[in-house]
From TrEMBL:
PROSITE patterns noted in UniProt: HTH_MARR_2
The name this protein goes by in its record: MarR family transcriptional regulator
SMART domains: HTH_MARR (SM00347)
Ranges of residues in domain HTH marR-type: 26-158
Source organism phylogeny: Bacteria, Bacillati, Bacillota, Bacilli, Bacillales
Naturally occurring in which organism (per UniProt): Aquibacillus halophilus
GO MF annotation list: DNA binding; DNA-binding transcription factor activity
Keywords carried by this UniProt record: DNA-binding, Transcription, Transcription regulation
Amino acid sequence: MIIRISYNLSQKVVQPLNNITPTSTIAGVEKELRSISGIVKKKGREILNNYPITPPQFIALQWLLEDGDLTIGELSNKINLAFSTTTDLIDRMEKNNLVERVRDSKDRRVVRIHLLEKGTSIIHEVIQKRQEYLGEVLENVPEDKVNSLYSILNLLHENMKEVEKKSTSR
């Protein structure tokens, strides 16, 4: 069975193909995303087994790599953990010389979490291993299909952020 999602960007409409209702298409997309998410999570944990970090630490280190120094509150919001849990997470990463707490140069009352060289090295290695795995998965997929997949995933991500933004502003 072939399912195609076509987007009318002005109306954001999911159109059925071969008399498949939008509801069943959406259910299929949700199921595939759930399955893919589980596989990626499992493979990610396998890769992390070779490194001295936990999955939540990996997520925190990724945010610090991407966004630079963050306060515990900012990091807590990004990784969706309670402030106290994030503090414990940072304490453990600080003991392992992955991050350090530094005073903000503009406001000495503010403490930011700074990624250290060891943390940067580990996160780069882990991301490289994850990308190698994905490269292996996509090895026999034509480049135009990979580019289409990337575009659709990007669109999905942007739409999800927009819906999230609307739901939190209510």
